[in-house]
Amino acid sequence: MEIFAYPFMTRALIAGIFIGISCSLIGVFIVLRRMAFFSDAIAHSSLAGVAISLLLGANTIAIALLFSVTIALGIGYINKKTPLSIDTVIGIFFSGAMALAVIIISFISGYQPDLISYLFGNILAITGSDLILAVSIGIFTTAIILALRKPYLFLTLDRDGARLAGMKTTILDYMFLALLALVVVASIRIVGVILVSALIIIPPATAKNVSKNFIQMIYLSMVFGVASVFGGLVLSYYINSPSGAVIVLFSLAIFVTATIAKTLTLLAKKRRA
Amino acid sequence: MSATIFIENLSLKYGNNPILENISLTIEAGDLVMVIGPNGAGKTTLIKCTLGLVKPDSGTVKIVGLKNQESKKLKIGYVPQKPAFEKDFPATVLEVLDLMLIYQKYGRVEKRNLIENTIRNLRIEKLLNEKIGDLSGGELQKVMLARSILNTPDLLVLDELISGIDIANEAILYSMVNELNQNHGTTVIMITHDINIVYKYARTVICLNKTLTCKGKPEHALTFENLTRTYGEFAVSYVHKVEH
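The joint structure predicted for all components is written out below.
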């Protein structure tokens, strides 16, 4: 295929596969723990980090990562230490980080193509170091989440039971938040700040709809995640549109197709019965 | 191994509303204790404080497990009043049961046998590959009990276990809990609203209405005075009228 002849496209596809796997894998627990708003907040918070780095001329990914991890752990800490509900705490941090990002962006003079590419994703902007970052974070987060899938399932299913079984639930919680921040920051080059949470939520939601058990949900989620990124990137190349938006729409198309197929299968089963 | 529980001066308020007031009691190793009291008496809160799931305002709880005179890490089984599972959770009964054994040193076959034996005893073997979200309330309660007794706990805590369970299955559940208590020395604490069940199975009854209103063998502790202190004069006289 012609698109594989371009080095930028090859970089985007390789990075995309690893991002697709790590986003959809951590997304399984985001969906099951009903934390969709949380992943959105972390993604939007990273924009403040991106803006600071552009203002200072510093390393964007490092600053965005620092900012996202701090916000993620901050939300977790305030949630544990105050009687405020999690959505209220997220709302406070989310709006605060966004307001900070807008103010910092207003100090940056002139047109900022880099900022636009971080907002909506840009496959042309993926450098060799972005690729290395995406692959290493992808392997690191996937390995940890797969290794800890049972403790995290236990924690998601029954927090009190997990504590009584001797699990270090607080450490596992903070670790999960830090992993989420890592995955978000590694993905913003391709999918963009605005849409990265869709890649974390839609493939696992699709998998949840069609899975017979938890382990099937994990594998199907990764398959749908990779298919969304791969299909979306190729399509975005041909229709010349922002990669992030096309990936999300591709992922949405898989969700709609799988849901219709599931509904039709259930109807057919009912008719046979 | 059994667990002995020492509770001293336990108090807890939610806002200005006292939930538990200065509770002190000891639950002996291997005892089968039933906790009774009206709604809002603090039964579930007492259990959660005992298990360390809710932090009291004051007082202490100490759970000690001894095996050959040495202190060991306790295995605790807990069935909450409301199952913690979300209705649409995509895990099967097998996956849920398997989770209880992740920190136990069992081989794959040993794990499978243990799960199969437990669910056979509870007569829920057909549910093994069902999604937990597809189970009825009673089936889910049985799965929760299976999960809590799977690794032969030293302490088993059951918060209104039989809500939603028919009388035939109720007998099976009680006989399993009784067997665990008798044969393995598991200390059992159950919250119930059924006084007949207390007389039938409990060796010790604890009456609670924010404060401790009675504790002892059911035949000695469940006097008219103690029940009046626990449930109030009107409620006890009403029950008395209905029974006669």
